[in-house]
């Protein structure tokens, strides 16, 4: 076990003990101090950052308002009266969760900053030069479309489907095993004459993809790997379509057509026969060992076990084990579009686009 894993385990243990300690507290004072300390630390961090002065002032006011709301909430609800037993414990759990609110503000400000920086880099032709990326820019949401898409993505139907699907997932154990067939691997072997791998980014319209797009503001929110140009061997991590368990699964083109304007972009990457065999062997190993879709990791950016991944994490890891990665990044922090947008050394070549509404 490496130092990083030991550190994370110890940190998780400390957090559990801290949570138990907070839930055992019977008085308001400690919670009040923690809320105040968190506000001071975050405000201090804010004013030491490179943010604009206007942003600093606005966020400072927000942090102070949150702290005030926390103090009022605890005084009037959590520690009002002489509560005991389970009701009091539940109230304190809510108070602990309330401690996280300022950190969510910090996180959303971080996302906004990153998105703003990226939007400026789009103007740099050296960052994105593929012809098809122009099509992606044309497909970028206008403000009105963003709001409309956000409402559709967060519709009751989409959220219900996502919530119903969550019990099928696991963050700690492998659920998917031996779902890739001998016929799939035979087709992979036949592809070895073509010394290329194919990276497929897609806009499918699935509820999970639509929800992710609200936060990433990207049109394409899924990426797959194929050993052949005709996509007979396309494979990735996904939810299993309620047919297979979430994890490593072969994909069919029909699975990508979940909305009228669904589409995919296919890029080729030069890869020797030996490099393709390395990836095939690794895919076979994962298939035999077991896998699960890293649904929680989309937020936490962390995997408990090596074969628990999400789609872009899987594709990048496969490229890396064969020495084919063309940019450096922690695999858990890679978005599907990064596989194209971060191709600074022009390793990819555009092959073709499929628009399902034109078939």
TrEMBL record:
TM region positions: 7-24, 30-48, 60-82, 94-112
Name of this chain's protein: Permuted papain-like amidase enzyme, YaeF/YiiX, C92 family
Lineage: Bacteria, Bacillati, Bacillota, Bacilli, Bacillales
Provenance organism: Oceanobacillus aidingensis
Keyword terms: Membrane, Transmembrane, Transmembrane helix
InterPro entries per the UniProt record, alphabetical: Papain-like_cys_pep_sf
